[in-house]
């Protein structure tokens, strides 16, 4: 018989319940056992039990399932006899004669039970015999698990029978009981009185708590099939559902009702239009149907207030006597409609419950209550401006709404809370009843705030609509369009459209030359687009002319800072002295903001040049200033530079996790995300994870090169060329590299070629195009001549070594690779230094020298220490080919049931979906060897298939 308990639910996987599942399984493994699964409605009690009953360790045991129902007059012992009825024709022979007492209750089992017993007149004796009969039948079944769900709805007879069973359970019996403590009668004890398990019985309480944000994110991804759910969406879902799995599943089912994937890129906007799921709406209506009118009034007031409210505020809004409100709140709490949130605050369990009640109100009643909230909050000191603005708008008081809304936005800006300011202004501008002059003023404020924040999608749509208003004065439209252009370029990753808007804005700002100069300075930043360097020089020259004699210090800093960043990007040796003079010159907030931008730009440029010490100093100062000014976009950009510095320095431990956290924080902002994707791609290349590398490098800019930061794009192109060649696709790798060189050549900033040019040269040599390789190397040499670009200088030596090696001039190649190794080490850039050292050893081998085993072994150790597993494996393959054994410097050790380092690496590659042949290619081992490693991994992890392997923890990156 199939029970509803074992049917599939909306969630394909169990998320966030590992500890609880293990506790339940451990108890079931040691019968007799009694397990109490406790949790509120929708928390996942049934799902947890179902998952446990499907576990391999429970297979072979008989499972009987019963459920209590919320009936007005429940049938005595009904849930227990329901589960026994599932035995049908599987009742064992030779039952204790007392089981004959079960005939009246289990007519389906009549043919399998002993003869019926004579009727007893005494009720207590009759009940005791019945309980003994049930216990005897269960004992005869041997290894059996019985489940009674929703014990809070059990009648007294069922509760007494269950208590009888667990007070002295047979050796093979396991009893699993689930219940909601808040709905238990009387003293809220699931078995009627305190339970003390007898000796020899395993007893476990498994309380289920709401899921945290991380688990909500994972469950959302599993249900929707989404690869990556943004952190802000997960946090919003957690807030709306309180982490209750059933509520979350209903929300996601509503989102995907039409068979479409949710558009997570829209962030909260995806959820703002979400209707309350029907089941939740009906559940709230059912709970409220039994409330008294005063309690209903309190619940309505709480729904209008939205956030947990005090008894005083609820009293003021409902305008009822305090003593009545006190009793009304208590009634709503007992009914589970309102919850005690602590500190004398009362609200709903989750946002959807509040919405269900709010939308059940008639419009006229909602407006009346909103007016009551405005009156009550106006008396507060200080006044909660954001809440006042919201309730005034809902009450239809437009003047009050605008007054408090602008005040709230201004206060948020003063506090450095850009995100709140943007959200408030977006809300104000989204109202169709806003007057034209108010709309223009607020749009200008929004554009200024949004350009330094992270939330850009809704702001960009609003600003685009506003700049299309022909009645706007040019000066106002120009400022809004300028900031829209910057928003599109930096946050939205729409460089081409952003540049068009910025150029148009420069023309519209003819009456405001200071702002026009700021637009020109933005157009002079070389990181975006494929224009020649001279174009950027022309823009900055025009901007410098406009600010000549300008009194606005912040504006002068913005223009001159961009000019300095332009010079620095190319490796201008004279830029350093000017940079030192400008750092720390900001006095007020506007000037400090420009100083933060300058530091961020200089840190970025210095990192690409290879000046890592200076880059770190600029990064730290810029991060501090950006935080002081409340500029989260700048903070994120600077943190992205920090990730690249960590990659370069070989600080790979935890780097992937930090990159993913930055991606979560970035909320899709391309100007921040590009660096994080690049670092994740580079790490994947070093580990030989080609699919992940391709995805991450594509996200870093390769999928949309026209809208990618140029320096990041160059590095990503070099890494992708390496992936292609490592997979045996030499021609494809060469074509990839050549596309990058074309872009670099057009821009003319060869200092950004440090990661690309050596790979392009290697690709040309690999495909037999030696003249082209030599020509490119000569062009690179000329391009960086006289520049202060140590990374490019090291790359130049690596390129020379590659060309010499391709021409079989091994001594010359060894000299060049040795110079490259030393130059990379000095930066420091340990990964590139190790790659150059490997090439140096290969030159010595090719020249016929005795095999320098210790040299290649040292390089393999360097790669291993970094976490570059593919590179380390490649070096060890060379050693094996030369017949050299390379034991661990720590000596060989046994790992017992623990995974060895090699097995951990194999397990990680299995977990991300690699086949044995792909793993063999990555680790330079034979497929047969990999088969043996995989078998050991499965055995040690105690899993049945590759699909059950999860990536083991590691400190490699």
- Radius of gyration, in Å, reads 35 Å
Any idea what the CATH architecture of the domain at 658-681 and 690-719 and 740-881 is? Answer: Alpha Horseshoe
Please state the structural category: mainly alpha
The major β-sheet equals: 5 strands, parallel
* Share of residues in strands: under 5%
As residue ranges, the low-confidence spans are: 1-9, 888-893, 952-957
Could you give the order of strands across the largest sheet? Answer: 2-3-4-1-5
Number of helices: 44
- Tell me roughly what share of residues is in helical segments: 55-70%
Q: Roughly how many Å apart are the termini? A: 51 Å
Indicate the mean pLDDT. Answer: 86
What is the H level of CATH, i.e. the homologous superfamily of the domain at 658-681 and 690-719 and 740-881? Tetratricopeptide repeat domain
């Amino acid at each position: 018989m199939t029970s509803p308990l074992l049917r599939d639910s909306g969630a394909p996987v169990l998320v966030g319940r590992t500890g609880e599942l293990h506790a339940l399984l451990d108890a079931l493994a040691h019968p007799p056992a009694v397990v109490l699964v406790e949790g509120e409605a929708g928390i996942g009690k049934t799902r947890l039990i179902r998952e446990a009953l499907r576990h391999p360790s429970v297979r072979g045991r008989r499972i009987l399932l019963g459920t209590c129902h919320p009936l007005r007059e429940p049938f005595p012992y009904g849930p227990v006899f329901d589960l026994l009825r599932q035995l049908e024709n599987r009742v064992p022979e030779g039952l204790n004669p007392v089981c004959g007492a079960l005939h009246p209750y289990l007519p389906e089992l009549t043919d399998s039970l002993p003869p019926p017993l004579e009727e007893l007149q005494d009720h207590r004796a009759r009940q005791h015999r019945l309980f003994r009969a049930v216990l005897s039948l269960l004992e005869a079944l041997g290894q059996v698990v019985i489940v009674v769900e929703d014990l809070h709805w059990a009648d007294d007879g069922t509760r007494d029978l269950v208590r009888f069973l667990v007070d002295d359970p047979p050796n093979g019996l396991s009893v699993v009981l689930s219940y909601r403590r808040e709905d238990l009668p009387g003293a809220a004890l699931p078995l009627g009185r305190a339970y003390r398990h007898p000796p020899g019985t395993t007893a476990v309480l498994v309380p289920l708590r709401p899921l945290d944000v991380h688990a909500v994110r994972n469950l959302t991804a599993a249900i929707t099939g989404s690869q990556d759910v943004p952190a802000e969406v997960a946090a919003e879902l957690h807030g709306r559902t309180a982490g209750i799995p059933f509520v979350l599943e209903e929300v996601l089912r509503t989102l995907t009702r039409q068979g479409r994937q949710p558009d997570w890129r829209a962030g909260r906007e995806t959820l703002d239009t979400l209707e309350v799921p029907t089941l939740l709406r009906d559940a709230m209506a059912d709970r409220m149907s039994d409330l008294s009118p005063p309690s209903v009034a309190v619940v309505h007031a709480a729904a209008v207030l939205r956030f947990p409210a005090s008894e005083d505020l609820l009293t003021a809004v409902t305008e009822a006597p305090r003593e009545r409100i006190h009793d009304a709140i208590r009634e709503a709490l007992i009914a589970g409609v309102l919850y005690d949130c602590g500190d004398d605050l009362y609200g709903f369990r989750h946002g959807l419950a509040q919405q269900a009640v709010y939308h059940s109100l008639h419009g006229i009643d909602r407006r009346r209550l909103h007016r009551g909230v405005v009156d009550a909050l106006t008396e507060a000191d200080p006044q909660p401006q954001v809440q006042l603005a919201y309730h005034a708008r809902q009450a239809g008081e437009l003047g009050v709404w605008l007054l408090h809304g602008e005040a709230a936005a201004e206060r948020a800006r003063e506090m450095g809370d850009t995100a709140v300011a943007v959200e408030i202004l977006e809300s104000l501008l989204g109202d169709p009843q806003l007057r034209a002059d108010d709309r223009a003023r607020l749009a200008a404020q929004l554009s200024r705030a949004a350009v330094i924040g992270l939330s850009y999608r809704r702001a960009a749509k609003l600003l685009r609509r506003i700049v299309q208003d022909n009645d706007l004065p040019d000066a106002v439209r120009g400022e809004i369009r300028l900031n829209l252009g910057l928003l599109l370029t930096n946050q939205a990753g729409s460089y081409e459209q952003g540049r068009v808007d910025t150029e148009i804005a420069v023309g519209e700002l003819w009456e405001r030359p200071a702002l026009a100069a700021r637009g020109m300075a933005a157009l002079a930043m070389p990181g975006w687009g494929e224009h020649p360097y001279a174009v950027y020089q022309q823009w900055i020259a025009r901007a410098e002319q406009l600010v000549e004699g300008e009194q606005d210090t912040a504006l002068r800093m913005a223009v001159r800072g961009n000019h300095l960043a332009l010079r620095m990007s190319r490796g201008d040796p004279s830029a350093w002295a000017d940079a030192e003079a400008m750092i720390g010159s900001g006095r007020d907030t506007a000037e400090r903001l420009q100083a933060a931008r300058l530091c961020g730009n200089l840190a970025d440029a210095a990192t690409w040049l290879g000046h890592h010490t200076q880059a770190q100093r600029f990064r730290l100062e810029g991060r501090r200033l950006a935080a002081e000014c409340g500029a989260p976009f700048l903070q994120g950009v600077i943190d992205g530079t920090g990730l690249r510095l960590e990659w370069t320095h070989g600080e790979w431990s935890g780097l992937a996790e930090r990159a993913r956290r930055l991606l979560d924080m970035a909320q899709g902002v391309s100007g921040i995300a590009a660096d994080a994707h690049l670092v994740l791609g580079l790490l994947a290349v070093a580990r030989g994870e080609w699919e992940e590398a391709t995805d991450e490098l594509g996200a870093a800019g390769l999928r949309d090169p026209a809208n990618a930061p140029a320096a990041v794009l160059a590095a990503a192109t070099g890494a992708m060329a390496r992936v292609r060649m490592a997979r045996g696709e030499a021609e494809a790798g060469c074509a990839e590299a050549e596309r990058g060189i074309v872009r670099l050549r057009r821009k003319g900033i060869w200092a950004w070629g440090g990661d690309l040019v050596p790979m392009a040269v290697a690709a040309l040599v690999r495909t037999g195009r030696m003249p082209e390789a030599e020509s490119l190397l000569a062009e690179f040499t000329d391009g960086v001549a006289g520049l202060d670009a140590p990374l490019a200088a090291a790359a130049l030596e690596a390129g020379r070594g590659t060309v010499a090696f391709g021409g079989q001039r091994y001594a010359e190649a060894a000299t060049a690779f040795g110079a490259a190794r030393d130059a990379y080490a000095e930066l420091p850039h340990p990964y590139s230094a190790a790659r150059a050292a490997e090439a140096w050893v290969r030159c010595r081998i090719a020249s016929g020298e005795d095999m320098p085993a210790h040299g290649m072994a040292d390089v393999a150790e360097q790669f291993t220490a970094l976490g570059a597993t593919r590179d380390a494996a490649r070096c060890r393959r060379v050693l094996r080919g030369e017949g050299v054994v390379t034991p661990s410097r720590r000596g060989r050790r046994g790992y017992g049931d623990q995974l060895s380092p090699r097995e951990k690496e194999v397990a990680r590659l299995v977990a991300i979906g690699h086949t044995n042949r792909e793993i063999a290619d990555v680790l330079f081992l034979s497929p047969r060897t990999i088969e043996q490693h995989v078998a050991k991994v499965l055995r040690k992890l105690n899993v049945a298939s590759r699909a059950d392997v999860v990536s083991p923890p590691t400190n490699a990156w």
